[in-house]
Every structure is written in C-alpha cells, then in structure tokens.
C-alpha cells in the first residue's frame, strides 16, 4: 500500500512540474498576437539610392531635403544616398531612363520628351512652379514681346521647359519663330554664357530661370520685361521642377519612393516656415554641387519669383508636351496620340498626404 502511494505521489509531482513549464525548449508563438522580437529588430539590407538634381536654386526643395537630412531620415539608416548633379534636363532624363539614377528633380519639358521615347519612369510629385522670366538686354531695343521680331533670344537648352514657355509666349503675342530676321530666332546658351552674350549684344533677350534674371537686372546688363507670374502657361502656375522616379526603383523600392516624396514635402514646408535659414542652406548645397555659391539676396529673389508646390497639374504638363510635339522635340507621335496617363503617378503623393 505504501509502495502504491509513493508511485502515485511521484506521478503527481511529474505532472505538476510539466504543467509549470518543464519543457523549456518549446518556442514562443510567432503569430500576429504573439509578436516576434527577432523579426521586429532585424536590420534591413543596405541599399544605395542615387538622387539626381540640378545646379540651380529652383531645385530648392531637393537642396533642403538633403541639407536638413530629410531624405536620410525618411529613407532610413540602411540607405546610402549618392547625389549626382546635372546641368540640363536632357542629361538628367537620359540618366533616369538608363537607371544611372533612381529619382530626382527635373523640368517637365525634357522629362516628357524622354518618357515618350523610353516610357520607363514616372512623375511622382511636384516641387516648384514658375520661376522663369523674360529678360531683354540693356541695348537691345526690346521693351515688349512684340519687339522680339528680328531679334535673337537665348534659352538654356533646346527642348527645355523654358523654351516651351517662350514658344507659348511668342505665340500668344503673334511673334513667329524663324531662322532669319522676319521673326524671332532661338539659340541655346548656358545661363552663365547668356550674361556675356547679352552684355556684348550677341543675343537680345532670354527666357531664363531665376536667379539669373534677377542677376542680369542687378548687374545692369538688362531688364525683366515679362515677370515670372506672367509667363505661360497659366501665368506662372506651371510646373518648372517636378520629382521623377524610374520604374525599376518604383518596382523594387516603392516604400523608399514614398519616403522620398514625404521628404520633399517636408522640405517645402521648411522653406515656407524658415525662409532666412533656407537661403543659407540652399547656398551651401549649391556651392557643393557647382563649386560656387550665390549672393543670398539672389537666392531670396529666386524663391520669391516662384511658387513651391508639391501638387501636379497634368493639364499644364500635357499643354507643354503639345508644344514639344509641334516643335519637333517629341517625334513620331501626334498631339491626338499623346497619352500621359501613365506618366503622371499621383498615388505616392496621395499616400503621403
């Protein structure tokens, strides 16, 4: 009887110990309610993201997003950021289409031209509207758009957003573009070269992004005859700088593209709330990209002659694309055949907003 009682007591003790967690090797549940510490704290694989941007203060939101660390904060510590500077939209758009860069800032003119050829990148956010002026040389005899008949007008590059605006401006004033003195003649000149050409009266006017227009006026080389808020389309309310991303980047790292849009919006709000600090930060980044800074007053003038805006106007981009088609920059397609519905992707912007 005693032996039987002893066995029974041993069995009970074994049962109690098992119930209290004797099987210490059993893993914790990893479902939605249980959590998984190893998964939550796992480091993400390192990623290199290449950002393209111009050496121009109209790309101010990109400059601030870099200088304030917004891109790094939003993309994450596992992301290594590389910045590539460009002088014109054609080179930028080619780099984006060939995956040399992942996303960045460019004008809608060259971006649309390249998109029709390659179709492998998208517009994901706005950045700046307006920001360009028509300036006439001091000794040019030009006081209005109609005076441009028989004159030579400089544009930064062929097919640029500035050229598209100039063509619309000339058209609405009834001035034809020709290769002789019966109309206005267009030539491509880098903005810095345009200042010299105006001074020497080799060109008579230019439609140029800020702060070059203000600088020309301040140095007594010429005067603004059409301010930024009267430049077509929409009297300055047209996209001058947009944010674009490659399809490859969007496909592989859509979360990072959304983060980049958020960083851009943060930068725009910072500039609006802290203009004086922004001028210094923009100048710092400009110096790094171009090797030369600007007078802060010129940067201030540039930012007050444009509208920082993350919204996208498909209508304005389409209107500008029609000008590019008629000018021969977009080939093998008619205005009626043009379809930019896939080019402008507002889904990331809407997700951030």
Explain what the structure shows:
The structure is a single chain. Helix 3 (60-67) crosses helix 11 (254-273). The chain has 2 domains: 47-131 and 239-352, Periplasmic binding protein-like II (D-Maltodextrin-Binding Protein, domain 2, 3-Layer(aba) Sandwich), CATH 3.40.190.10; 132-230, 3-Layer(aba) Sandwich (D-Maltodextrin-Binding Protein, domain 2). Strand 6 (152-155), helix 7 (161-172) and strand 7 form a beta-alpha-beta unit. The chain has 353 residues and is α/β, with parallel strands linked by helices. The strands form 2 sheets. A 6-stranded mixed β-sheet has the order 2-1-3-10-4-11, sandwiched between helices. The chain contains 15 helices and 11 strands.
């Amino acid at each position: 009887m005693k032996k039987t009682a002893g066995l029974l007591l041993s069995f009970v003790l074994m049962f109690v110990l098992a119930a209290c967690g004797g099987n210490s090797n059993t893993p914790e549940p990893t479902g939605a309610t249980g959590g998984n510490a190893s998964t939550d704290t796992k480091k993400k694989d390192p990623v290199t993201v290449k950002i393209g941007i111009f050496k121009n203060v109209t790309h101010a939101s990109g400059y601030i997003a870099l200088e304030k660390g917004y891109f790094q904060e939003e993309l994450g510590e596992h992301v290594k950021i590389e910045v590539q500077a460009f002088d014109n939209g054609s080179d930028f758009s080619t780099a984006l289409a060939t995956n040399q860069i992942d996303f960045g800032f460019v004008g809608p003119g060259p971006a649309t031209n390249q998109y029709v050829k390659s179709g492998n990148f998208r517009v994901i956010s706005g950045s700046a509207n307006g920001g360009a002026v028509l300036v006439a040389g001091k000794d040019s005899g030009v006081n209005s758009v109609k005076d441009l008949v028989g004159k030579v007008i400089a544009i930064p590059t062929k097919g640029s957003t500035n050229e598209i605006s100039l063509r619309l401006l000339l058209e609405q004033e009834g001035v034809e573009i020709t290769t002789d003195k019966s109309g206005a003649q267009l030539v491509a000149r880098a903005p810095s070269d345009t200042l010299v050409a105006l001074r020497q009266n080799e060109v008579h006017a230019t439609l140029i992004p800020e702060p070059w227009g203000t600088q020309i006026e301040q140095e007594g080389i010429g005067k603004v005859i059409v301010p930024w808020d009267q430049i077509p389309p929409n009297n300055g309310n047209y996209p001058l700088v947009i944010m674009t991303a490659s399809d490859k980047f969007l496909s592989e790292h859509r979360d990072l593209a959304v983060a980049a849009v958020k960083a851009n919006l943060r930068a725009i709000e910072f500039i609006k709330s802290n203009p004086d600090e922004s001028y210094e930060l923009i100048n710092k980044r400009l110096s790094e990209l171009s090797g030369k800074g600007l007078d802060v007053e010129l940067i201030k003038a540039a930012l007050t002659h444009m509208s920082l805006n993350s919204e996208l106007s498909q209508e304005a981009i389409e209107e500008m694309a029609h000008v590019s088609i008629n000018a021969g920059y977009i080939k093998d397609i008619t205005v009626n055949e043009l379809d930019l519905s896939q080019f402008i992707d507002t889904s990331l912007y809407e997700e951030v907003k």
